[in-house]
From TrEMBL:
The chain crosses the membrane at residues 6-27. Keywords: Membrane, Transmembrane, Transmembrane helix. It comes from Clostridium pasteurianum BC1. This is Gas vesicle protein.
């Protein structure tokens, strides 16, 4: 149960940060392209954070 909560919080924070970047005024095409290309990095980082938190809780 705790793991799902932590995973939800982490995922929500990452999605919120990405959405904030997309909505930010003055965001140009280059920045959006960089965000799209960094999806894999963000996904891996979220997975690593979740694994670290899960091991810390157990």
């Amino acid at each position: 149960m705790r793991g799902k909560f932590i995973k939800g919080i982490t995922t929500g924070a990452l999605i919120g940060a990405a959405a904030g970047m997309l909505i930010a005024p003055g965001l140009n095409r280059n920045t959006r392209k960089k965000i799209r290309t960094s999806r894999r990095f963000i996904s891996n980082a979220a997975e690593d954070i979740f694994d670290n938190v899960r091991h810390w809780i157990d």
